[in-house]
Amino acid sequence: MPDLFRLDGKVALVTGASRGLGAAIAQALASAGADVVLHSSSQPADATARSIQSGSGRRTATVVADLGQPGAAATLASQAIAAFGHIDILVNNAGTIRRAPAADHPDADWDAVIAVNLSSIFKLSREVGRHMIERNQGGKIINIASLLSFQGGVTVPGYAAAKGGVAQLTKALANEWAAHHINVNAIAPGYMETDNTDALRKDATRFRQISERIPAGRWGKPEDLAGAAVFLASPAADYVHGHVLVVDGGWMGR
Question: Can you name the residues that pair with 39 across neighbouring β-strands?
Fold first, then answer.
């Protein structure tokens, strides 16, 4: 049974791996045996690479790309494949958030969020999915969705729209690629202690309101996604397709 969750011999590409959820997921996949290509948007994810090398001893490579720019996803995919020869696991984690009331929400903020949080996920999945189909060895694609895949949020219309799109894109790709033994699923984190929620946690009223609703009694930490990510990347999830796995401390069941 433990072998069902091993990733030995696999290569994973994790976007947004320099900190937060991406770093924790990358470290978890490495601990399960995978070599990991670590993407970041500006500076190489060297700290995550060092943590993996000292912890599990797995191979790492770092790649820098601004996924909000045209052509970045294709370049990233080719560089990641070149690093270790193939990709077995893709984790689409990179994201951004812009907060402003809908009536005053700038076009630039909307466009930036949709480009990174939705369009780049499709484009990178398309490139890596094509690679997986041509290799004919199957694969795993894990998209990072959100509670706002189900709910609307406040002052984050672009983020909510993108994350709703991520859930539907996950299902659409699963429908096409399941026959190729490519599992496309998503994880929807709850309220997590990351840079994206810094503004919420600094707002005493919102922090209290959110905290009181979480049955687990606390906000999540990046490492709380480790088990879900390893499961969806592993043989244990070979018959799981198009699923959005909520990891939220019970928020959605409240």
Answer: 63
Statement: 2-248 belongs to CATH 3.30.1360.140: no
DSSP class per residue in 103-158: GG--HHHHHHHHIIIIIHHHHHHHHHHHHHHHHTS-EEEEEE--GGGTS--SS-HH
Distance CA 159, CA 237 (A): 28
pLDDT of residue 1: 59
- Exposed e or buried b per residue across 9-31, where buried means at least 16 C-beta atoms within 10 angstroms of its C-beta: ebbbbbbbbbebbbbbbbbbbbe
Query: Among candidates 195, 178, 233, 244, which has minimal Cα distance to 36?
Result: 233
Q: Does the pTM of the predicted model rise above 0.90? A: yes
Which residues lie below 8 Å from residue 111, measured CB to CB, with a gap of 6+?
A: none
**In whole angstroms, what is the distance from residue 69 CA to residue 27 CA?**
27
pLDDT 10s digits, 27-43: 999 999 999 999 999 99
- What is the distance between the alpha carbons of residues 65 and 13, in angstroms, rounded to a whole number? 13
Nearest-angstrom CA–CA distance, 194 and 128: 27
Other CB atoms closer than 10 Å to residue 187's CB: what's the count? 24
pLDDT tens-digit series, residues 66-104: 999 999 999 999 999 999 999 999 999 999 999 999 999
Look up 159 and say whether it is catalytic: yes
Q: How far apart are CA 127 and CA 174, in angstroms?
A: 15
Q: What is the dihedral of CA 191, 192, 197, 198, to 10 degrees?
A: 130
Catalytic pick among 84, 159, 191, 219:
159
